[in-house]
Structure to design on (404 residues):
């Protein structure tokens, strides 16, 4: 295992052990700004970890970023790791980021579905449907690809077929990985932005997913998504769709950003990171850093807007 | 570890809602038959699905019989998985 983050290869994919080892080293090396919080345990009793970036103070407003809820989307974990390192290396140099961190805390959950991620390394990467061991779910990808809908609420657009993309799950927050996030964010009570990172459809979306009806802050979220996507485009010329989930992708209830928005987190976005158009989940490792670089500019745009528009 | 030699990922472009619903019908099949990497959402968006080698003939025939246009996005998944594994091992060394 790596003993220092300086020898860690950010342009490679890594196993869960390697990532957790990197987290320990990273926190040790940057203890003035980063700490590690365990917010729960997975179904198979793995630790669910969150990195907290903070310059001190109590009850700072906060920004949440999660990667890897769909565990075979390795590009998201890799992007999260690069991003965490970017925050530390740019703090004090990048004025915008420095201002953000002086006023706000940033939380990053790098491996939202550790069981599924471990499964993709120990068993198989490519196939998607595989029931969680000991689970009543025979088709849905609980231990592997997906935690289904974030909150898993039945409703308009969600589906009772466990083999469907929009399966709503047996009950709200039925998965411990989901409950850990919900409990943490709810207990914190001062999150102002939430960004859930997925791949690979090149989209940046905001609420609602459950309804075609625009949210009350639709204009602001639209403009912010547009700015973020433009900032992303300037890095490597990758074009993203943007808009509400229901108008951009599909109508489906019970997803992350709807829950966040309804919980009072106005700046709630769901990212679908880049795809070359050929590889899907097998995005070559050579594209990790370009993907992370462009994503960072979009994240930075959203975080800066959050800082400048307190509510 | 399983072997995916010959498994392909097909990219399908549905022209309309009717064709999309034909793709959604595939979701109801046994999960081993089709694994949607990008599910049928709306006609303007491509649908990507992994098809095991053993099911390729059946699935391609299904698509062709319903006039669904597709292309082969990944010809052999195992080749890419081997490359990925090798890259990770090299990085670890």
């Amino acid at each position: 295992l790596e003993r220092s983050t300086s020898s860690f290869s950010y342009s490679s994919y890594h196993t869960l052990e390697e990532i957790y080892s990197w987290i320990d080293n990273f926190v040790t090396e940057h203890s003035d700004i980063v700490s590690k919080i365990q917010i729960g345990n997975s179904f198979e009793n793995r630790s669910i970890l969150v990195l907290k970036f903070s310059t001190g103070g109590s009850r700072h407003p906060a920004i949440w970023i999660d990667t890897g809820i769909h565990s075979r989307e390795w590009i998201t974990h890799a992007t999260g790791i690069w991003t965490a390192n970017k925050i530390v290396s740019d703090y004090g140099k990048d004025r915008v980021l420095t201002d953000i961190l002086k006023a706000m805390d940033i939380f990053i959950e790098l491996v939202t579905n550790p069981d599924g991620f471990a499964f993709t390394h120990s068993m198989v990467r490519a196939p998607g449907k595989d029931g969680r061991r000991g689970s009543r779910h025979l088709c849905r990808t609980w231990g592997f690809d997906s935690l289904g809908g974030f909150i898993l609420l039945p409703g308009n657009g969600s589906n009772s077929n466990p083999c469907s993309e929009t399966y709503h799950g047996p009950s709200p927050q039925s998965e411990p990985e989901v409950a850990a996030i919900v409990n943490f964010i709810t207990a914190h009570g001062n999150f102002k932005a939430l960004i859930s990172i997925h791949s690979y459809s090149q989209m940046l979306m905001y609420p609602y997913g459950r309804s075609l009806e625009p949210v009350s802050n639709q204009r602001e979220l639209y403009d912010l998504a547009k700015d973020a996507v433009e900032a992303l485009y300037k890095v490597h010329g990758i074009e993203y769709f943007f808009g509400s989930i229901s108008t951009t992708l599909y109508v489906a209830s019970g997803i992350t950003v709807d829950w966040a928005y309804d919980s009072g987190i106005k700046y709630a976005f769901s990212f679908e990171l880049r795809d070359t158009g050929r590889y899907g989940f097998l995005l070559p490792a050579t594209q990790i850093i370009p993907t992370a670089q462009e994503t960072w500019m979009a994240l930075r745009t959203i975080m800066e807007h959050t800082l400048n528009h307190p509510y | 570890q399983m072997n995916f030699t010959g498994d392909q990922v097909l990219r399908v472009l549905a022209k309309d809602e009717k064709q999309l619903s034909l793709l959604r019908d595939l979701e109801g099949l046994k999960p081993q038959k089709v694994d949607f990497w990008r599910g049928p959402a709306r006609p303007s968006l491509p649908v990507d699905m992994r098809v095991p080698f053993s099911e390729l003939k059946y699935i391609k025939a299904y698509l062709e019989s319903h006039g669904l246009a597709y292309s082969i996005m990944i010809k052999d998944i195992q080749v890419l998985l081997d490359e990925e594994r090798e890259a990770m091992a090299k990085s670890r060394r």
